[in-house]
Design a protein that fits this description.
The complex is a heterodimer of chains A (about 110) and B (about 110).
Chain A lengths: L3 E4 L2 E5 L4 E7 L6 E7 L6 E7 L4 E4 L2 E6 L4 E6 L8 E7 L8 E2 L3 E6 L1
Chain B lengths: L3 E4 L2 E4 L5 E7 L5 E7 L5 E9 L2 E4 L7 E2 L9 E3 L8 E8 L8 E2 L3 E5 L1
Parallel strand pairs in B: 2-11
Antiparallel strand pairs in B: 1-3, 3-8, 4-5, 4-9, 5-6, 7-8, 9-10, 9-11
Classes of the chains: A mainly beta (about 110), B mainly beta (about 110).
Chain lengths: ~110, ~110
């Protein structure tokens, strides 16, 4: 089955700096790669996603890149703000309806 | 905002009790999932359903059971709670026909004493 590795497990940055979180997946059939943000006491919420037919996607300060050959994808957050502090999860999915397989999560701390 | 709800949000219960965690969604999604989230925050798939009367076990072995009698409802039951069941339980749903996002409920934090 699919296995998703995520690094780093913790990341501390200064406000205004960039943050990068990296994930690798094992199943070349995976074609959907979402990123979720989980704040304390809440369920994970989608912040950005990318499909295998796209190499990069951007939404304001957040971007995701995908390298299908190397089977890895990354989340980039620019101009970080204290409210970006949360746990971030990457995930992969093979086809519609199948369960998302998650990475172990990255705790991002943004200090002002 | 996702229309998926979990109750209760918090539950403290004694060892040996039977408990049911409720999950309901009003989006008409066929696919529903239960994840267990450990203190290190990792999400483990414990059960999933592809539709009414369909239930499957996930990657992580769990002593819980699930049922899917109605599309919108996917309850999780522990027949005899133990301290090792203490965890956060997250319910999610996805559309059937598109490979797209999963919507999560806010979770149930279960403590078995």
């Amino acid at each position: 089955g699919e296995n998703v590795e995520q690094h780093p497990s913790t990341l501390s940055v200064q406000e205004g700096d960039s943050a990068v979180i990296k994930c690798t997946y094992s199943d070349s059939a995976s074609n959907y790669f979402p990123w979720y943000k989980q704040e304390l006491g809440k369920g994970p919420q989608l912040i950005i996603d990318i499909r295998s037919n796209v190499g990069e996607k951007k939404d304001q300060r957040i971007a995701v890149t995908l390298n299908k050959t190397a089977k890895h994808f990354s989340l980039h957050i620019t101009e970080t703000q204290p409210e970006d502090s949360a746990v971030y999860f990457c995930a992969a999915s093979i086809q519609a309806g199948t369960a998302l397989i998650f990475g172990k999560g990255t705790t991002l701390s943004v200090s002002s | 905002e996702a229309d998926i709800y979990q109750t209760p949000r918090y539950l403290v219960i004694g060892t040996g009790k039977k408990i049911t965690l409720e999950c309901s969604q009003t989006m008409g999604h066929d696919k529903m999932y239960w994840y267990q989230q450990d203190p290190g925050m990792e999400l483990h798939l414990i059960h999933y359903s592809y539709g009414v009367n369909s239930t499957e076990k996930g990657d992580l072995s769990s002593e819980s059971t699930v049922s899917r009698i109605r599309t919108e409802h996917f309850p999780l039951t522990l027949e005899s709670a133990r301290p090792s069941h203490t965890s956060q339980y997250l319910c999610a749903s996805r559309r059937d026909t598109l490979n797209t996002e999963a919507f999560f409920g806010q979770g149930t934090r279960l403590t078995v004493v």
